[in-house]
Amino acid sequence: MNSSEIKLDLDNYSPQQLIRFIWSRWGFIFRFRWPGFGRLRVKSIDVRKTRHGYHIRIWVRNRIPSRELNFLQLALGSDYRRECMNLRRIISVKRMKSWNILYHYKFSGSGDLTSHETSDARLAKKIAGLIKTFQTRNRLLAPPTRLRTPSRFPSGRNTPKPATEVKNWAK
To answer: How many structural domains are present in the chain?
Structure first.
């Protein structure tokens, strides 16, 4: 079953920590073409604050097969326990349509509301901007060019002296 919705459960992050995490990790995933579904083409993003962190939904134009979507969600930092349970659902029930669930509301056993999500449009806009940066500015994500560094060795070179010369230093 293919899907075009990526659902992430990211716990224990402040907004600033979440942005730093996304900057450090998502660039790699959003800038490449992936076998089976190609480069992710984002349509929209929804971010909701939960009691323990954030739920992020990313709608893409791509149709992503279930196992690849599960791996993609894990690679993007979604709760590993959730993604392990999702994989179990995918494997054990081949035609299960709703294996990838994020709840907007949670209730206790007695039916009392225990938590609900609140929308964070400002954070969603920041994340959308980061993804756009990842996809349009590959040069920002390239490894830095080698910088000239001052000489670190007594010979004035940036490489150590041959072993015979090093032996003379010990005297």
So the answer is: 1
For residue 35, being part of any structural domain is answered with: yes
Does a structural domain hold residue 154? Answer: no
On whether residue 149 sits in a domain, the answer given is no
3-state secondary structure labels for all residues of 84-148: HHHHHHHHHCCCCCCCCCCCCEEECCCCCEEEECEECHHHHHHHHHHHHHHHHCHHHHCCCCCCC
Cα distance between residue 62 and residue 43, in whole Å: 10
Q: What is the Cα–Cα distance from 164 to 37, expressed in whole angstroms?
A: 57
If you ran DSSP here, which 8-state letter would residue 151 be given? Answer: -
Task: With residue 37 as reference, give the H or E element that holds it.
Answer: none
What's the CA gap between 99 and 65, in Å, rounded? 12
User: Would the pLDDT of 145 be above 50?
Assistant: no
Cβ proximity of 68 and 148 under 8 Å: no
Which 3 state secondary structure label does DSSP give 161? coil
pTM: 0.73
pLDDT digits (tens, 9 = 90+) for 86-108: 999 888 887 777 888 777 656 56
CA distances from 59 to 46, 51, 79, 117, 122 (A): 9, 23, 19, 18, 17
